[in-house]
Specification:
Number of helices: 13
Bound molecules: flavin-adenine dinucleotide
Strand content: 15-25%
CATH architecture of the largest domain: 3-Layer(bba) Sandwich
CATH class of the largest domain: Alpha Beta
Number of strands: 22
Number of domains: 3
Largest sheet: 7 strands, mixed
Shape: globular
CATH superfamily of the largest domain: FAD/NAD(P)-binding domain
CATH topology of the largest domain: FAD/NAD(P)-binding domain
């Protein structure tokens, strides 16, 4: 094959998995080549996922707080939304962060190739740039980090400007008057909340009996007290969709009845699938499992010694922080670092709605009542929560009855996502309830709800007496 140039380590995909792997590997002295179709690293997370959605959710929360303040004697007018400026602000956030990653990549002397890679052999691949021009290269080791993309619904696989996926929703081309979100998982709820704050009448259709299937129901109950949606259809499937001049006509089939509703647009948020197709995996000598994921060992190595895989393509949970952690482990393994391996006790998860929901480790559904004590501290007993109008929140710990070791935790309320890492750290370090209850937490902060939950393991907490 002509134009061969053997690379020490090639990383395919520059999302939070790929760029974290590339940066760490370069810091460990490896010559890294990073390949991605975008002009800078960032992946789905920075360009079309975590970051733009959180920028918009920040706006949604700002509006909700301003509107809520009338209850405390401070009345704001209903804000006017300038959708073009909102979109341009969101773009600026994305640009600043992705350009920053580009600079960090250059500073580490990483060879960044803009294009799409496809394996042509065990140590060879072909890169197609954005103009369709191809070039070949060979490599000693490779880390595959090609991420995931949105799953469509067969009923909704219509290429039409009014049928959206998350990427379309984040483009903010317009604020529809009426929108149906199909899927009550975290992406559906986060983007649904954004559009509700922008003024859209948002309805949700979810196949299971509640929001966020699989998530702690105590957390979901806190969200339900404040959910911003016009209509919610549980145990409901989208049966048919028809594009009309006036919008999208949708047949929704519930447990008891079928109803037809009209919306300006439909946002499909029913899950994500790994990007393992069109990668030439056969030529490389590996294959994806029946769900499309690449199977790896705790070194993040596939069945081939020189081939690693990280991030969304290796399976659930499909989260950016899991991808980055795997990336750093794979980099250390490729650098020959002894003892490097993927072995987290917990992977925290957060839903960035208002209120935020966050959890890690053992859940109440998984816990065996005989061995595990569940303690719950209501935020109505927290001075800080009451002072900021967050009385409905909740902090929960799951603790081994015998060893008193923290096994899991869940938080619902403002900044829950910034509180959950304390519980994750406690679990990683094998901390006990007394470690948490004896750690002096600053007052008045929401973090005290973690300390007081731990106090509840031993009886009552300073600010909460069980009846
Ligand atoms: C709307 C939305 C909100 C989200 N919010 C959060 C959140 O708040 N927190 C969180 O943890 N996660 C969130 N996620 C999930 C998160 O984005 C992913 O878990 C994360 O991006 C996975 O990282 P990754 O490195 O595996 O892959 P990705 O970020 O998907 O990056 C993969 C990269 O590989 C590139 N690529 C694909 N094929 C090739 C090829 N053949 N050659 C070269 N490059 C290729 C892709 O173009 C992409 O740039 C969100 C996702 C969405 C859609």
């Amino acid at each position: 094959m002509a134009n061969k140039d053997r690379k020490e380590l090639v990383i395919i995909g520059a999302g939070p998995g790929g760029y974290a792997a590339a940066f760490h590997a370069a810091d460990l002295g490896i010559k890294v080549t990073l390949i991605d179709p975008e002009v800078n690293p960032g992946g789905v997370c920075l360009y079309r996922g975590c970051i733009p959605s959180k920028a918009l959710l920040h706006l949604a929360k700002t509006k909700e707080e301003a509107m809520h303040a009338s209850k405390w004697g401070m009345k704001f007018e209903e804000p006017k939304i300038d959708i073009k400026r909102v979109a341009s602000w969101k773009e600026k956030v994305v640009k600043k962060l992705t350009e920053g990653l580009g600079q960090l990549s250059k500073a580490r002397n990483i060879e960044y190739i803009q294009g799409k890679a496809k394996f042509t052999g065990k140590n060879e691949l072909e890169v197609t740039d954005n103009k369709g021009k191809t070039s070949d290269l060979s490599f000693e080791k490779v880390i595959i980090a090609t991420g995931s993309s949105a799953v469509g619904l067969p009923e909704l696989e219509i290429d039409h400007e009014n049928i959206w996926d998350a990427t379309d929703a984040l483009e903010l081309k317009e604020i529809p008057k009426k929108m149906l979100v199909v899927g009550g998982g975290y992406i559906g709820l986060e983007l649904g909340s954004v559009y509700a704050a922008l003024g859209t009448k948002v309805s949700i259709a979810e196949m299971t009996p509640g929001f966020l299937p699989g998530t702690d129901r105590d957390l979901v109950k806190v969200f339900e007290k404040n959910e911003p949606f016009k209509n919610v259809f549980f145990e409901t499937k989208v049966e048919k969709v028809k594009i009309t001049k006036k919008g999208v006509k949708v047949s929704l089939k519930g447990k008891k009845e079928e109803q037809n509703k009209k919306f300006d647009c439909v946002l499909v948020a029913v899950g994500r699938k790994p990007n393992t197709q069109n990668l030439g995996l056969k030529k490389l000598g590996i294959s994806a499992n029946e769900k499309g994921f690449l199977e790896v060992d705790n070194k993040r190595r596939t069945k081939l010694e020189h081939v690693f895989a990280i991030g969304d393509i290796t399976g659930e949970p499909m989260l950016a922080h899991k991808a980055s952690h795997e990336g750093r482990i794979a980099a250390e393994v490729t650098a020959g670092k002894k003892g490097a391996g993927y072995d987290p006790k917990v992977i925290p998860a957060i839903v960035f709605t208002n209120p935020e929901l966050a959890w890690c480790g053992l859940t109440e559904e998984e816990a065996n009542e005989k061995d595990v004590k569940v303690v719950k501290f209501p935020w109505s007993a927290s001075g800080r929560a009451v002072a900021i109008g967050e009385n409905t929140g909740l902090t929960k710990l799951l603790i081994d009855k015998e060893t008193e070791v923290i096994l899991g935790g869940a938080v619902a309320g403002k900044n829950a996502g910034s509180l959950i890492p304390e519980i994750a750290l406690a679990i990683e370090m094998g901390s006990t309830a007394s470690d948490l209850s004896l750690t002096i937490h600053p007052h008045p902060t929401l973090s005290e709800t973690i300390m007081e939950s731990a106090e509840l393991f031993y009886g009552d907490a300073t600010h909460y007496k069980k009846s």
